[in-house]
TrEMBL record:
Domain annotation Mur ligase central: ranges: 46-262
Keywords: ATP-binding, Ligase, Magnesium, Metal-binding, Nucleotide-binding
Organism: Stappia sediminis
The protein, known as: tetrahydrofolate synthase
Ligase recorded as keyword: yes
Length: 436
């Protein structure tokens, strides 16, 4: 076991027996550390259910294309914890990470604190001690009581698409979940929001009104659409013609528009040339990512098209299935879905989007967590959604079955491995292509 893993496991042991979303533990630790959260560069705070990572990645790419130094905090990681903390464009190295974690452990003094809270405090320490032009700060869970919500006055609050997820902690209604997400809105701070369900949008608008926060709504105050193979962005300042974002899927047009609008609201949007370069270079692993080579690809039938995506809720299922449908129109191939999922997710809602599209679903366990859904139960959920499904005890077994089916069919398949970021991380590690 390496030293970073050892200290992370020690910090896990400090976790309260019952998770109660609260800012009290975080505020206590930050005070003991000398309030690093008050010494940060301008913060863009990003909440929402789907699209947080892609929107953040797009903002980073645009700013870095203009030569800006950007700190980034995202979660969860896929292969290595260091992926969560990017200092001025570079993932934090083990030495600096260990030092920050150790300082937080000492300051905490053995008190109960969640893993996310103490590691977020370590990130704030690192961000406060190295100059940058901006910090892109992604919410971990919810918003109102999330450990990142100790920032009193960000430059802008961003709310991506909201849908049902984490019901155990955020509530079982869309209105309740939207209330938690809207908790990142601060008095007088601009709010930029994606297009939302009417219920969620109403919650966000009322919160912005209470806080006297200027609000910018996708589809009303700004828009981003594809026209003639280009991204056309429009707001009150005019119309701009950009290349399509490098991230795949029609939903990435909205995420790109959200990123541009957020940077403009924060007064951090660079010249159009940098926006163009950023949109063309943006990368976000595990989101409709094609696998072109590697250990997992070698186990797939020759000529197979292999895709990887960590989407795990009904909203994500819709956008991933829409992309797979577009791929089918472009080049018809049988679609095989390999899925592993946490037991806290809604598998039926996720699978429904693939009805009539997927030839077969292979369900597998998650090896990186004890909270994975049983493959037999997951297969039952796929059948409930109208799909044919078979449980397997491993990814390798599922891929071997797909290879046998492809040989029988006589045509190379399209394979989608999906359902959990835990599974994405496992696949990237086994494939030999971890995030850089």
């Amino acid at each position: 076991m390496d030293q970073v893993t050892a200290i992370l496991e020690r910090l896990l042991a400090l976790h309260p027996r019952e998770i109660d979303l609260s800012l009290g533990r975080m505020e206590r630790l930050l005070a003991a550390l000398g309030h690093p959260e008050r010494k940060l560069p301008p913060v863009i705070h990003v909440a929402g259910t789907n699209g947080k990572g892609s929107t953040t990645a797009t903002m980073r790419a645009i700013m870095e294309a203009a030569g800006s130094r950007v700190h980034v905090y995202t979660s969860p990681h896929l292969v290595a914890f260091n992926e969560r903390i990017r200092l001025g464009g570079t993932l934090v190295d083990d030495g600096r990470l260990m030092e920050a974690l150790d300082r937080c452990e000492q300051a905490n003094g053995g008190a109960e604190i969640t893993f996310f809270e103490i590691t977020t405090a370590a990130a704030f320490l690192l961000f406060s001690e190295e100059p940058a032009d901006a910090l892109l700060l992604e919410v971990g869970l919810g918003g109102r009581l999330d450990a990142t919500n100790v920032i009193d006055r960000p430059a802008v609050s961003v709310i991506t698409s909201i849908s049902m997820d984490h019901e155990r902690y955020l509530g079982a209604s869309l209105e309740g979940i939207a209330l938690e997400k809207a908790g990142v809105i601060k008095p007088g701070v601009p709010v930029v929001t994606a297009a939302q369900d009417d219920i969620a949008l109403g919650v966000i608008e009322r919160s912005a009104l209470r806080n006297r926060s200027p609000i910018h709504i996708f589809g009303q105050d700004f828009a981003a659409n594809e026209e003639n193979g280009r991204l056309v962005y429009q707001d009150e300042n005019g119309l701009f013609d950009f290349p399509l974002p490098a991230l795949r899927g029609h939903h990435q047009l909205e995420n790109a528009g959200l990123a541009i609008a957020a940077l403009r609201a924060a007064d951090l949007l660079p010249q159009p040339q940098a926006v163009e370069k950023g949109l063309q270079s943006v990368d976000w692993p595990g989101r409709l990512q094609p696998l072109m080579h590697g250990g997992i690809v070698d186990q797939c039938p020759q000529g197979a098209e292999v895709w990887l995506d960590g989407g795990h809720n009904p909203g994500a299922g819709v956008v991933v299935a829409a992309f797979m449908g577009a791929q089918e129109e472009r080049c018809s191939r049988p679609l095989y879905v390999v899925c592993g999922m946490l037991n806290t997710k809604d598998p039926v809602g996720f699978f429904r989007a693939f009805e009539g599209l997927a030839r077969h679903v292979a369900t597998i366990p998650l090896s990186a967590t004890e909270n994975g859904r049983d493959p037999f139960e997951l297969a039952d959920s796929a059948r409930e959604a109208g799909l044919e499904a078979t449980p397997f005890d491993s990814l390798e077994a599922a891929l071997a079955d797909i290879a046998a089916c492809a040989e029988k069919d006589g045509e190379p398949p399209r394979i989608l491995i999906c359902g959990s970021l835990y599974l994405v991380g496992e696949v990237l590690a086994l494939n030999g292509t971890p995030p850089v």
